[in-house]
Amino acid sequence: MESTNIAAQKEQVQIVWKKRPLIISGPCSAETEEQTVETAIRLQKTGKVDVLRAGIWKPRTRPGSFEGIGTKGLPWLQAAKKATGLLTAVEVATPKQAEDALHFGVDILWVGARTTVNPFSVQDLADALRGVDVPVLIKNPINPDLELWTGAVERIDRAGIKDIGLIHRGFASYGNSEYRNAPMWHLAIEMKRRYPELPFINDPSHICGKRDNLLEVAQKAIDLDYDGLIIESHIDPDKAWSDAKQQVTPERLGEMLNEIIWRKEDVPTIDHATLEKYRQQINHLDDELLQLIAQRMKVADKIGAYKKDNGLTILQTNRWNTILEKAVAKGEKQGLSKEFITKYFDAIHMESIAHQNKIMND
Ligand code: PEP
Ligand code: MN
To answer: Which of 160, 194, 259, 310 qualifies as a FRET site for 286, CA 20 to 30 Å off?
Structure first.
């Protein structure tokens, strides 16, 4: 009996793991049994949620705020699962937490952003999970370091975990920002490129830190071909014991999921010839851009030689300012953002400096 139950559970986990979009929702923290079970029931009523998330151990930046209900909350998740059939997911940061979560039948574990930053903690978790058949989602580290994120994937992978997924929850940045954690989409895109086969989930809640632009961030993730979303929900968001500002009611979550325009990487029935034609144009233009940039660097080499012969510095700040200002003005007229032009010209300039440096010092 026991073993057939386990087999059925594993099968359900496999089905959900492959579902697209994969939708995970639930409170930042499990607070009481009623809150946990009622959230699950109301989420299940939306018909759109696959997995109930709930924080049991909360890694708080500063001591003194609610640090999670602890192991006693795990049976509440079991009760919620029994009432709804939703799978359950919990953040674990230590071997003991992983062991407790598995003991109480949690279906999916996730490694939080404050754990991914620490290779010792990730390795301890990986060692504890060796030989266990449970999917593990790995959040990006708090700081924008893809090597740490990659390292965490490698450690969990080497422990033999076969179902690994990634959660993009944004990166802490210093100073004011419209986000609680800056999405830095380019980093997420690079991680997706490194691991195209791993489910890639977006966490608009921790990116936004407030309810207002959850939908916008979720839509952007879907437009970028993410495999799913993890969004915090609470039966009474303003009274939540943690992350109150960013949580929404299960009903609001349901509405948001309805409002999202779900796109796919490929729709077999469309006319691929049109897309192919545009892609060829893009490829052609990219080739031309590369050739032009290479030509530009050849000129930089000549300038480097000239500066060397005449004892001039490589960096000529005034000249560079003029180039940049003109480019920004021209670019904006052509519909290119100031941010893009600045990044683009910075990259070109750094490459040009590297070329001149080589000429001068070879
Ligand atoms: C959470 O999911 O509630 C959480 C603590 O997330 P993160 O690790 O992304 O801060
Ligand atoms: Mn949270």
So the answer is: 194
